[in-house]
Design a protein that fits this description.
seven-stranded mixed sheet, 39% helix, pyruvate-formate lyase- activating enzyme, six-stranded parallel sheet, alpha/beta, single chain, 2 domains, Rossmann fold, globular, 18 helices
């Protein structure tokens, strides 16, 4: 079958500079090619496509048998528009949705994306090839046929396809997901389909260095149960790891063949297994890989680091780590089920600062549903008091499948009809004593009060004055935060 995997159009202003390869689609491309399918990836964000541009592109490339969208909650409206455009041109094409949003909402997905034929929850590699096998007989010879008319449903037994969400006899059914145990067996993401050769040359401001970077995935799964996070819906709670040799092969291939020197460890549980991190760092040093890398996309945990680990990470090229602090209120940390407290947070930050020269980023959430004005101010004061370099003050976002959202729905505190309203830079719900506008103002105040301090101003000027492009990107990023 001819398959097009799609990262959808984004109309969120803050994502304009967030060009990053969709590694998940790369894994799916590799898996499907192993089963004999023709697969391409279309990254609408990277290609800066609007809706007319998307329609023109798929019209010129001709019909695909199967279109698969990776759907984030904030992009459901855009995905619906893109599916409508596909239907205009190719009514018989099969369309499916996967990714974070279907994984979070499960069998409710067709009320959000009604014109999709199928959806997947959890990891897609176990189930998607089986669905395409069921569909295969329908599209044989279709290239020479008139593409008007109705789509045909898969005729086999769909109940055994892991993670599949489908309609049957007027009902929506959702099969339990399966999670890949042997991650190395997946092979590497399809670098050709991801167009890595050209991808990393797009210049953008990233981390503290203004250089291009490429993600690394060393594991899947997250064992924690933070109330605001739905990662477990996508990759499960059990942590499964790639072998050290696999990760080194990832780095060496991209470094040798594509000239990539900057990497970001992007999985949820990198530091969960101490010996794994120690061994990986020692191997990077032994092979004299001249790379720089960070743990900035996802946070490392305070209770999983020690001096030896930090020393080896830095020696092996790690220049930046992010920690998830989230709140300066002990009460809110408990509500979030963070399994951390303020003394542990402060001790962890001080340990990193004392034992290394790695820059420290920190995640904070403003506007958690049980917060008050004073809780928000506690968070801002905590951020200012810690020796961190790059805080990110996210506005609370109600991700589908999270315990906190389920409680909000039960309490009738939120209207979920318009998912594109919910992202990290737009307030979602007012607090008892803070309006939506007030939350946005607190976010702006958090950034300004942190960065507009004489000590930090001097550091920022020295760091970014060497590259006007990066400095302008930084100021543009901050202005977008403030303006919304």
């Amino acid at each position: 079958m001819r398959v097009l995997l799609i990262k959808p159009i984004s109309t969120q202003k803050w994502e304009d500079d967030c060009f990053y390869p969709e590694i998940g689609l790369g894994y799916l491309a590799t898996t499907l090619k192993k089963h004999g399918h023709q697969v391409e990836i279309l990254d609408c964000v990277r290609e800066e496509l609007d809706f007319p541009g998307f329609k023109n592109l798929i019209g010129k490339r001709g019909p695909d048998d199967f279109y698969g969208f990776k759907v984030y909650s904030m992009n459901t409206a855009n995905v619906n528009r893109q599916i409508d455009l596909i239907r205009e041109l190719y009514p018989r094409a099969v369309v499916a949705a996967g990714g974070p949003h279907p994984s979070g909402v499960g069998e409710k997905i067709f009320s959000h994306i009604p014109r999709a034929d199928y959806a997947f929850q959890g990891e897609g590699e176990p189930g998607l090839p089986k669905l395409l096998s069921e569909l295969q007989s329908q599209v044989t010879g279709r290239r020479s046929q008139d593409l008007t008319g109705n789509r045909l449903p898969a005729t086999g037994d769909l109940s055994e396809i892991p993670g599949l969400i489908y309609r049957e006899n007027g009902e929506v059914k959702a099969n339990p997901p399966a999670f890949v145990e042997d991650l190395d067996s997946l092979g590497y993401p399809d670098w050709e389909a991801l167009d890595v050769k050209n991808f990393h040359r797009k210049r953008r401001w990233v981390r503290l260095i203004g250089k291009d970077y490429f993600p690394i995935l060393t594991s899947r799964g997250c064992p924690y149960a933070c109330s605001y996070c739905a990662a477990f819906r996508i990759t499960g709670r059990k942590v499964r790891r790639h072998s050290i040799e696999y990760v080194l092969g990832w780095i060496e291939t991209l470094h040798r063949d594509y000239g990539i020197k900057y990497f970001s460890v992007s999985d949820d549980a990198f530091t969960q297994e101490r010996d794994y991190v120690i061994t990986l760092c020692r191997e990077i040093l032994a092979r004299r890989l001249e790379i720089k890398w960070d743990c900035g996309s996802n946070a490392i945990r305070f209770d999983r680091i020690d001096p030896e680990m930090l020393h080896l990470m830095e020696q092996a090229g790690c220049f930046y780590v992010t920690v998830a602090i989230e709140s300066g209120s002990e009460r809110i940390l408990k509500d979030m089920n963070r399994r951390s407290d303020l003394p542990a947070i402060r001790a962890g930050i001080e340990l990193i600062k004392r034992e290394s020269k790695m820059a420290i980023g920190a995640f904070f959430i403003l506007g958690y549903p049980t917060e008050t004005r004073e809780d928000i101010m506690r968070t801002i004061r905590l951020a200012r008091s810690l020796p961190i370099d790059a805080p990110q003050f996210f506005l609370f976002t109600p991700h589908p499948g999270t315990p906190v959202l389920e409680k909000m729905v039960a309490d009738r505190k939120i209207n979920l009809e318009n998912w594109d309203l919910y992202n990290y830079f737009r307030p979602s719900i007012p607090l008892a004593d803070v309006s939506l506008t007030g939350l946005k103002l607190y976010q702006a105040y958090a950034y300004l009060s942190f960065f507009l301090r004489p000590r930090l101003i001097g550091q920022i000027v020295i760091r970014y004055i060497r590259d006007r492009s990066d400095f302008s990107n930084l100021t543009r990023f901050l202005s977008r935060i403030i303006k919304g």
